[in-house]
Amino acid sequence: MARLLKSLGTLFLKERALRPASATAVKLKAWDRARTVHTDADLGSLTRYDESTMVTDWQKKLTPEQFYVTREKGTELPFSGIYLNNTERGMYHCVCCNAPLFSSEKKYNSGTGWPSFSEAHGAQETDECGANILRRPDNSLGCTGTEVICKECDAHLGHVFDDGPPPSGQRFCINSVALKFKPS
Questions:
Q1: 103-142 confidence digits (pLDDT tens)
Q2: Which residue numbers are catalytic?
Q3: Alpha-carbon dihedral angle through residues 86, 90, 94, 98, given to the nearest 10 degrees
């Protein structure tokens, strides 16, 4: 009997090790189906939403280009964005969740073809804990870069580079379709 229990225990551990990471997510009660609690083995998203439900919701809310850029980590063509040459005073918000992201006061012409900002709204010099953006390592283009995402909804916004103007030295290169401008 002891050998049988030991064999079953070993089999259980092997089966558990072979299980895909997404199967380790634990669903909550029926009234909270949209949310999922992720275990250490499934750390794909910063938020805790069931992705299959959210994809449909985002596709209904966004244009195909907005969906491609913000939810599938795409990039709009350079020099094509509606906010590239915008010089009005105001605030740039996330097109997905309306979180304030960048002030027009920190926008500048970098010549790269995308709206560029030297600092995120709510940042205090190098401290971005008050900002609605997060930085995430990005190796998708074959080299190491830093992706900028919305802290509230995980929307892909663009990338940040260390070749911006003083005093921050940062260049937030952001897709226009990921933004919604509100004049002040």
A1: 999 999 999 999 999 999 999 878 999 999 999 999 886 7
A2: 173
A3: -140
